[in-house]
């Protein structure tokens, strides 16, 4: 895959970049090791100062950063700006709370026959981050902010279609004061990931992306016995029960499906609706889709921009065509948009059956799959009938039902009467083939720490 910015709204190549050579990667790894030797000795206070300076720069530069992201992957300008400001918040969160999260954790010294015993959180070293294009900054910041606060140094291999966002992150961290070697962007293709991961200078890796990419990185890391965090795909259920506020559930469902032009791992993708709420929900949901403005992502009125890549649109189109060919009913949309760029109509499909690929695959675009169920057990059965386990949404005002959804949905997170969103204050991650490990909160910072037991007689 070429390393290039190709504007998805026009299909035009804006800028191309050469991949680094193996020798340049080797130099970068040396720089990272040298950087780590000094950086690991810096104080929490110093790291927090640099994190806050990064946040300040992001806030000051948010408009330009947003324009760059929109040009690279087609998200609307408003959502790109919101993402930039969220990144600033993420940096501040770890600046404010990192020291407390990394403080020595006392153990019961008496129980273990010591005068003093505790756990110390120490950095692992050079961590490789392989990241996707859908949230070009936020995905990388979710790794960078906690990893840097903990004293690690980062090597970023970003998706090949967001090279400018990738370079910006390295640049902004340097301008904020992080010393050389603390965070480097390597413009390389995915074929170079294996040798970097096997390199003894690299201690651990995190990958956010598709299941095949995750499987490949996990297999190599397993062979090298290196720690990994995997944040992979999702096909989140969005369950609506009769007691719910149906108009609000339908309005939120529209956002939950089409946010980021439908390309979010935690987007609601399967809408599982109780038969007593079905007609009201589907009418309102379809009306919401009908009112969406699809178009140029730089225009303020636009709700849904293009898919980020031509291949992404082809994959989505194939999923819809397969379902329709096997009897799915198109309530709205169902086709690509006839204009330059990689636009696809916001689409709702009903009458989904197990034979259709969309039943089990992740629809990475603005396509909703609808299911009608008779009761809560059927709703949960369909929700869990997936290899994914990232997020889950359920709408009901019945406390007993809420508890059932919280307890029985197989996922890393459950949102009741709302849509799944990431916050620094909440843990983020999945189970099953959505991956393992957690990002954000103290869990995210501890992923890249050696949790060292200390016992003193
Ligand atoms: P992708 O094709 O897996 O790419 C993600 C990253 O992995 C890119 O940097 C890519 O590099 C690299 N890569 C691809 N194949 C690789 C391999 N065999 N070995 C090493 N690296 C490899 O995924 P995507 O299409 O960019 O992103 C969409 C997927 O990410 C969806 O499934 C989505 O649900 C998932 N996602 C998950 C989360 C989460 O937090 N759980 C968040 C966002 C997205 P190149 O670009 O050079 O190919």
From TrEMBL:
One GO MF term attached to the UniProt entry: succinate-semialdehyde dehydrogenase (NAD+) activity
InterPro entries: Ald_DH/histidinol_DH, Ald_DH_C, Ald_DH_CS_CYS, Ald_DH_N, Aldehyde_DH_dom, ALDH_GabD1-like, GABD/Sad-like
CDD domains given in the database record: ALDH_SSADH1_GabD1 (cd07100)
GO terms for biological process, alphabetical: tricarboxylic acid cycle
Start and end residues of each Aldehyde dehydrogenase domain: 3-454
Superkingdom, taxonomy of origin: Bacteria
SUPFAM superfamilies, A to Z: ALDH-like
NCBIfam families: PRK09406.1
Protein name: Succinate-semialdehyde dehydrogenase
Organism: Gordonia aichiensis NBRC 108223
